[in-house]
Amino acid sequence: MKLCLMAILFNVLPINAQESTCYGTSQNGRLENGVKLPVSGKNFISYSRDKEIQSRTYVHSLVKKIVVESYDTLAQTYPKKLFKYAETGFKNGGGFEPHKTHQNGLSIDFMVPVVDKNNDSIYFPTNRENHYGYDVEFDEFGGSQNFRIDFNSLGAHIVSLHKAAVQNDSELWRIIFAPDLQSKLYQTKYGDYIKKNIYIPTKQSWVRHDEHIHVDFKIKCEAN
Q1: Nearby residues of 206 by Cβ (< 8 Å), 6 or more positions away
Q2: pTM strictly above 0.85
Q3: In angstroms, rounded to a whole number, what is the distance separating the alpha carbons of residues 180 and 143?
Q4: Higher pLDDT, 193 or 100
């Protein structure tokens, strides 16, 4: 029995330990040895078990390391706050609807952190009825239905991602977030740091990006 277990471990561990290689760009690229993000942790979960089964939660190995370290930091600084990640990409990259990017393992959508009417942190509601969260709309104050955006937690998450990236000799290329809600983000205690260190375009993207932020990581890729 022990020999069988050892054989399984030796067969699995080298594959999991492989580093990913990205090719091309987020809009025209692919990925080798993509790795799956954890289903959950102390303070985060995936947006959909269905989408996990469809293999839509794979990223570059370094991106995974950065994301997990970021969540670990948040668990220490804001232990009662809850976070949820959404679409990432396929194990081998490539395009998939409705995204125009997410092709080389360096892009992740994170649902914005939210609080309920009692100001308690809750997981962003994602289900088939609301297109796994992507159909949720927020008003100009960050409110929607029975919950609202926790801008301070959003700022903390962005800063923790940036710091984890830098600690791993990487960077954030850009973050896409609804221009009409950016002022609320900059009003938090993390606003100055974000303005100084992170590029968030002020031009409206092809979709609003109010219910999630789109994060592109800066990692050197091979030619496609």
Answers
A1: 100
A2: yes
A3: 13
A4: 193
